[in-house]
Design goal:
- The protein has about 325 residues and is of the alpha/beta class.
- The chain has eleven helices and ten strands.
- It has helices spanning about 10, 35-50, 70-80, 90-100, 135-140, 155-170, 185-190, 205-210, 255-270, 275-285, 295-310; strands at about 25-30, 55-60, 85-90, 110-125, 150, 180, 200, 215-220, 245-250, 285-290.
- Strands 1, 2, 3, 4, 5, 6, 7, 8, 9 and 10 form a ten-stranded mixed beta sheet that branches.
- Helix 4 (about 90-100) crosses helix 11.
- It starts with 7 loop residues before the first helix and ends in a 5-residue tail after the last helix.
- Residues about 1-20 have low confidence and may be disordered.
Length: about 325
């Protein structure tokens, strides 16, 4: 008999936890509001897994707040030993754990796999007076506090890019006016609504609005222009700045070797599936698949890198 689930997340999962290696229903927790990169990743995984698997199902639960650390805490506290639940994570959460001084960290999860990478884009509304990166930077230098920039959570990848951009062009990163949001959807709404002068987000989250002419892309954080996208890079415009956001999944604490191996095998199979490869191409996501001990080593290195970047832009001490 299954144990009665407790807690908000456990209630959302409707007591579906199982300890076998092939759960009937896999739950993916997106630790952000609908519309952002983590939510997009979770729902893309859901669609590709359900297309490629004959039995079972996949559901997505959203728990927003504090750069994913609220969802992280619920995930860790409510799901120990469960082999049927995954948490979407990434560089944003690595940074948020540090800036929020989260009591629960990624060290308490079970690394499963890195999945995708996404470049960051600096955008302005279509009616903005800034028609180029140089025009925006000129105004930003003159009055950094008056030109608000919207993005995801404080200390996340969007915030890192804003701070690094300020530093690269000779500004004080601590003087910028960065407006954090709990999800990409909220951030984009503030840009479209004219509540901020500019915004930073992943290209996959902004592409449709850029293509529709509702947002103007000033620069992208890739080393070279992306095929099929006429967005100039920071580098080609004289700013030596590149940054890649990544997303992956982790399991809860206390998994057996068998449970961990089963989850890893399921995600490895997802990465190879035609449905997932089509998803990568459709969303302009970079395939950064990495699993097993190599992903665990990568996570350790990312914590060190994020700590250095956040310290350099004055977000941590």
């Amino acid at each position: 008999m299954r144990l009665l689930c407790t807690g908000l997340l456990a209630a959302a999962l409707a007591c579906g936890g199982q300890t076998g290696t092939a759960p009937e229903v896999l739950t993916i927790l997106a630790p952000a509001a609908p519309g952002g990169g983590w939510d997009q990743t979770a729902r893309a995984m859901q669609a590709a897994l359900q297309e490629g698997e004959a039995a079972g199902g996949v559901r997505v639960v959203n728990v927003a707040g504090a750069g994913g650390t609220i969802g992280l805490a619920q995930f860790v506290n409510d799901n120990a030993g469960r082999g049927d639940v995954l948490l979407v994570t990434g560089l944003i959460m690595v940074g948020a754990v540090l800036t929020n001084r989260s009591a629960v960290t990624l060290d308490q999860t079970t690394p499963i796999a890195r999945l995708t990478g996404d470049y960051e884009v600096l955008v302005v509304p279509d009616d903005s007076p800034y028609d180029s990166l140089d025009a925006f930077l000129d105004a930003w230098r003159r009055s950094p506090g008056s030109l608000a920039i919207a993005g995801g959570s404080a200390g996340g990848t969007d915030h890192m890019l804003a701070g690094l951009l300020a530093a690269r062009v000779g500004m004080d990163p601590t003087a910028i006016n960065y407006v954090p949001h709990s999800g990409g959807g909220e951030s984009i709404a503030s840009i479209l609504g004219g509540q901020v002068a500019a915004g930073i987000n992943g290209v996959s989250e902004l592409a449709a609005l850029i293509d529709a002419g509702r947002l103007r892309a000033l620069a992208i954080s890739s080393a070279e222009r992306l095929p099929g996208r006429a967005i100039p890079t920071f580098r080609e415009q004289g700013v030596d700045l590149t940054l890649t956001n990544w997303r992956g999944v982790v399991g809860p604490p206390g998994l057996t070797d068998e449970q961990r191996a089963a989850l890893t095998a399921r995600i490895d199979a997802l990465q190879r599936s035609p449905a997932w490869q089509a998803t990568l191409a459709r969303n302009d996501w970079i395939d950064l698949h990495l699993s097993g001990p190599a992903f665990e080593t990568f996570l350790d290195a990312e914590r060190t890198r994020a700590a250095a970047v956040l310290a350099s832009i004055g977000l941590t001490q």
